[in-house]
Amino acid sequence: MDPMTILMLVAVAAAFYFLMIRPQQKRAKEQKEHMAALAVGSRIMTVHGIFGNIVELGDRQAIIELSPGVEMTILKQAISNQPVEDEFEYDDDAEAVAEQEDLDSGPSADEIVAAAERALQESASDSEADAGADPAPADKEAAEEPADEDEKK
Question: What is the distance between the alpha carbons of residues 20 and 15, in angstroms, rounded to a whole number?
Fold first, then answer.
């Protein structure tokens, strides 16, 4: 073989190594270091764009908390290498607690039902008075029933 041909083959192999294999090995090493650096409490983003905090970490899976009380199990492979930069600050400040207490201190369901029943009774009595009907037609029927019982005896 011609020395020039051998030199060209070596040059192509070196270019292939430096342009294809070495960058892939570098990315794999970075991914491995990133996975090793994960710990409980770390803020992460999945490859699907879901943000969360790691609650538990296993060999193959991780449980992340998306919001208080909402957890999701994912594969560790689904954790993105991109750094997490939150746009919003999620603090449990006094304002949020006060708003929740205001919502919790509203009327109970029983109070709402009782108010609705009173409103229905008032509207029914108003409509009877407007129609000019006898205020208690049910009372007439009740008064007639004892007379019927006396006749039966």
Answer: 8
